[in-house]
Design a protein that fits this description.
Endonuclease III, domain 1, 0% strand, 10 helices, mainly alpha, 2 domains, binds iron/sulfur cluster, 55% helix, elongated
């Protein structure tokens, strides 16, 4: 995709959704971090269902430690891998209390040191909580980047590097959300809905599915 096409791609997505936000529910940066850790291999909807009651009770790392690992498990047992996630959340809360005065550090290197926090999670927190120009490449962004030709790469890190290089200034903070939402609701994994896609003329993917119910499966 050429430079002016990339600008137009994001201009259109931005026009349709001027203030994109994560679909995870949270009340502060610590809760966002916990929600993102819980969302690995789980849906945002499933995480929100579990965290609504949890986050009424727990707003700080110290409160999470007071709740304890077993108490946390009771809240999140509907989420996949809840045993290891509970362990990680307690572990990261402990570190936040001991090293950071209960605050979430605004630093990717410090974030990835926390249990259960990888580069993608750190990028989400940096972007959503601190407004950093980070690109958290999940399955949706990986697919959309490769399909459209916007950011091609064999690994999430390669796609992230391409996005860092190519996303134009005005769209760098929102790009992560626009791409996720585009992948989740239009450029879907099995059947991309090209017939209602706002960037259809800019996208390099072939063959496009231009008729609803055409039944053609995309790879
Ligand atoms: S045209 Fe189709 S493949 Fe391309 S971005 Fe839109 S939905 Fe995805």
């Amino acid at each position: 995709m050429k430079k002016d096409q990339i600008f137009e791609f994001f201009r259109r997505l931005a026009e349709l959704n001027p203030s994109p936000e994560t679909e995870l529910e949270f009340g502060n940066t610590y809760q966002l971090l916990v929600a993102v850790v819980l969302s690995a291999q789980a849906t945002d909807v499933g995480v929100n269902k579990a965290t609504r009651a949890l986050f009424r009770e727990v707003k700080t790392p110290q409160q999470m430690l007071d709740l304890g690992e077993e108490g946390l498990k009771q809240h999140i047992k509907t989420i996949g891998l809840f045993n290891s996630k509970a362990k990680n959340v307690i572990g990261l809360s402990q570190i936040l209390v001991e090293r950071y005065g209960g605050e979430v550090p605004e630093d990717r290197d410090a974030l990835v040191e926390l249990p259960g926090v990888g580069r993608k999670t750190a990028n989400v927190v940096m972007n959503c909580a601190f407004g950093a120009e980070t690109f958290a490449v999940d399955t949706h962004i990986f697919r959309v980047g490769n399909r459209t030709g916007l950011a091609k790469g064999k690994t999430p890190l390669a796609v992230e590097k391409q996005l860092e290089k190519k996303v134009p200034g005005p769209f760098r903070v929102g790009a992560h959300h626009w791409l996720i939402l585009h992948g989740r609701y239009i450029c879907k994994a099995r059947t991309p809905e090209c017939w209602r896609c706002p960037v259809v003329d800019l996208c390099a993917y072939k063959p496009k599915i231009m008729e609803k119910g055409a039944g053609r499966k995309a790879s």
